[in-house]
Amino acid sequence: LNNLAINYEKFNNYSYAFKYGLEALEISRETKNKNLEAETLNNLGLFYIKLRNFKYAEQMLDQARLIALQ
Fold first, then answer.
1. Which bin fits 13, alpha (ψ -120 to 50), beta or left (φ > 0)?
2. 45 to each of 27, 41, 55, how far by Cα in Å?
3. Backbone angles phi, psi at 11, to 5 degrees
4. Distance CA 50, CA 37 (A)
5. CA–CA distance, 64 with 53 (Å, rounded to integer)
6. Alpha-carbon span 21 to 9, nearest angstrom
7. Mind listing the pLDDT tens digit for each residue in 13-62?
8. Residue whose C-alpha is closest to residue 23's, from 9, 3, 7, 52
9. 64 near 38, Cβ under 8 Å?
10. CA atoms lying within 13 Å on the CB side of residue 3
11. Is the pTM of the predicted complex or chain greater than 0.85?
């Protein structure tokens, strides 16, 4: 799902990019897959940057950073 989100983002289809990105995030948390969770949060943060929504981008990227530091 994370790769699907990235592909939708490449075509500027952010509604589907976020849809699949958030699904990937939910699954990564349910399965306690910290690597996937950090990667997904990072991707979501980058999507928000491209949409110039820096508040949410910072939140996503901070969460990814905290996981990476564990």
1. beta
2. 18, 6, 10
3. -100, 15
4. 20
5. 17
6. 10
7. 999 999 999 999 999 999 999 999 999 999 999 999 999 999 999 999 99
8. 3
9. yes
10. 0
11. yes
Residue 56: partners with Cβ closer than 8 Å, 6 or more residues away:
45, 48
Who contacts 29 (Cβ-Cβ below 8 Å, separation ≥6)?
37
Calculate ∠ Cα 7-27-3, nearest 5°.
15
The amino acid at 15: S
Q: Torsions phi, psi of 48, nearest 5? A: -65, -35
Give the pair of three-digit tokens for residue 63.
Answer: 């969460």
Q: Please name the residue that has the structure tokens 């990667």.
A: 39
